Amino acid sequence: MKGRTAIITGSSRGIGAQTARLLGSRGANVVVNYFNNAQAAESVVKDIEDNGGKAIAVKGDARDTEDVANIVKQALATFGSVDILVHNAGMQFPFKSFEDMEWDEFIAKTDDELKAAFTSTKAVVPIMKEQGYGKLVYISSGLSHQPMDDFLAHGTSKSALNAFAKYIAQEFADTGITSNIVAPGMVDTDATAHTPEEAKTAYANSIPIHRLAQPEDVAKAVAFYASEDSAYITGSYLPVSGGGEMI
Q: Which domains does the chain have, with CATH numbers?
């Protein structure tokens, strides 16, 4: 990835931060996007630079057209290209059953998820087309395929993201741009910090590998799609679930 530039939305912590560190260690110039935690983003930048890489932190809401345009502008001004986009920014969602949920709170997650994916993709595709090269990687969830109690809004939004990524893959396949999905199972991050330990243990025991994913497990899958190793793969869905989606 030496000399390639990667924008990773929502990369101040969790999966995004680990992906930023890994791509930076493999030679990519990294744009660490954050929503409000500048200190965490700068810490990720420092980790990359301390490891010999190049990175900048840029504040912005992945759903906002002007913010995303600025992220892309900063990437071009600093590194001269945009070669990789990792759509990772997390969106809040109601943890409720269908019976307890109202339409407005249900659809808000799908609206946020797709707006962020649409907006960031719209901003980078013209650059990638002109270059004749681009890697688009979208972070989905195993819950898009396998329902779980009270994850209706989240799973539905990620199912929509899966379809979006395939349509992008089809439309731009002959321009040098690939589009792929990475779908983690339960990952040991801040997002699951409040999940009861007994629930984590039960989940780990239910999958073949018998442990929760770590952020680096997901980051390695993203790195594959962001590299030339995946040059002949587009429109694919890769579960990173410890074998959970075999069940």
A: 5-246 (3.40.50.720)
Torsion of CA 43, 48, 50, 56, to 10 degrees: -70
Rounded CA-CA distance 75/159 in Å is: 30
Residue-level pLDDT at 138? 98
Rounded CA gap, 124 and 82, in Å? 7
15-53: string of b/e by CB count within 10 Å (b at 16+)? bbbbbbbbbbbeebbbbbbbbeeeebbbbbbebbeeeeb
Which tens digit of pLDDT belongs to each residue from 189-235?
Answer: 877 777 888 888 998 999 999 999 999 999 999 999 999 999 999 99
pTM score, whole prediction: 0.95
CA 209 – CA 241 distance, rounded (Å):
9
Instruction: Tell me how crowded residue 180 is: count the other CB atoms within 10 A of its CB.
Output: 24
Q: How far apart are the C-alpha atoms of 88 and 66, rounded to whole Å?
A: 18
CB of 134 within 8 A of CB of 83?
A: yes
